[in-house]
């Protein structure tokens, strides 16, 4: 988690994500890259250096000069000022943390994915507004796309986190044999927050509690968890069960592994992670299982 990307549209949600990213970078000795994506008509590949203008002096795609180009230049100037203000804020909030800024001219999702690859990003921290949002970076569809496609973990933030202290981690799974593939990612999270209690959560729609407990005990032993609690919860749906339990234990973080392959358990379906990430109150960290 040393190279952290924060996509920003200068909204409150993106600022919440930025504050968390700065705290994580301080904890890990990492750095933060701020990204703003400018959506230009049919722009998919043009990239800007750190506000130095178009790469190699080229113009925007489909640019014919005149008013369109003038508008874009003005927009870049405003963006530059806003980015510099955020960097100045970092000096106060997280002294010593390196913060870079960059712009991609592209569709929003493509721009974020391009920045992940270009800057060698280990973690994307982004705001989330849920499905009720009408505009901005962080409508559900963009957040969900990052969860599905980003090659690194994605941490979604929906509310202010003045002090991102993780004491309670909720880890939902069905704890079948295939869940063993998720232990490495969970170990890394626990290593970043060594004092946290991990709440292993098994959502069931029947009363098979005993089997669930046995599976969780085996998983906890396999993952080498020391501070752990286990709970089997009966709920009508997986997502509602996760959200309600996270609220009940005052979770500071929900961790959900995902896998794009079909045929795996419901807990590894990206749709579960996407729904929880855009609806549950606490921050949600998702990561992909190894193929």
From TrEMBL:
<dbReference type="Pfam" id="PF00582">
    <property type="entry name" value="Usp"/>
</dbReference>
<dbReference type="InterPro" id="IPR006015">
    <property type="entry name" value="Universal_stress_UspA"/>
</dbReference>
<feature type="domain" description="UspA">
    <location>
        <begin position="166"/>
        <end position="287"/>
    </location>
</feature>
<comment type="similarity">
    <text>Belongs to the universal stress protein A family.</text>
</comment>
<protein>
    <submittedName>
        <fullName>Universal stress protein</fullName>
    </submittedName>
</protein>
<feature type="domain" description="UspA">
    <location>
        <begin position="68"/>
        <end position="158"/>
    </location>
</feature>
<feature type="domain" description="UspA">
    <location>
        <begin position="1"/>
        <end position="45"/>
    </location>
</feature>
<dbReference type="InterPro" id="IPR014729">
    <property type="entry name" value="Rossmann-like_a/b/a_fold"/>
</dbReference>
<dbReference type="InterPro" id="IPR006016">
    <property type="entry name" value="UspA"/>
</dbReference>
């Amino acid at each position: 988690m040393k190279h952290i990307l924060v996509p920003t549209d200068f909204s409150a949600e993106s600022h919440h994500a930025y504050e968390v990213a700065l705290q994580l970078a301080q904890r890990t000795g990492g750095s933060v890259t701020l990204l703003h994506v400018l959506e230009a008509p049919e722009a998919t590949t043009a990239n800007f250096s750190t506000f130095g203008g178009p790469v190699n002096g080229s113009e925007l795609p489909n640019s014919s000069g005149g008013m369109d180009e003038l508008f874009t230049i003005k927009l870049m100037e405003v963006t530059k000022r806003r980015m510099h203000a955020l960097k100045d804020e970092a000096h106060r909030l997280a002294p010593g943390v390196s913060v870079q800024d960059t712009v991609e001219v592209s569709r929003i999702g493509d721009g974020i994915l391009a920045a992940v690859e270009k800057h060698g990003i280990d973690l994307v921290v982004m705001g989330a507004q849920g499905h009720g949002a009408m505009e901005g970076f962080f409508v559900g569809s963009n957040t969900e796309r990052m969860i599905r496609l980003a090659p690194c973990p994605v941490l979604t933030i929906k509310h202010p986190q003045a002090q991102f202290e993780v004491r309670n981690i909720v880890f939902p799974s069905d704890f079948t044999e295939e869940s063993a593939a998720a232990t490495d990612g969970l170990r890394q999270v626990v290593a970043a927050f060594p004092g946290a209690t991990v709440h292993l959560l098994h959502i069931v729609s029947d009363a098979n509690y005993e089997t669930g407990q046995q599976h969780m005990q085996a998983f906890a032993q396999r993952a080498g968890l020391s501070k752990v609690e286990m709970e089997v919860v009966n709920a009508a749906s997986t997502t509602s069960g996760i959200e309600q339990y996270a609220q009940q234990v005052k979770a500071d973080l929900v961790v959900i592994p995902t896998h794009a392959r079909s045929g795996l358990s419901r807990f590894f379906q990206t749709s579960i992670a996407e729904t929880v990430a855009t609806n549950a109150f606490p921050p949600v960290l998702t990561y992909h299982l190894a193929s």
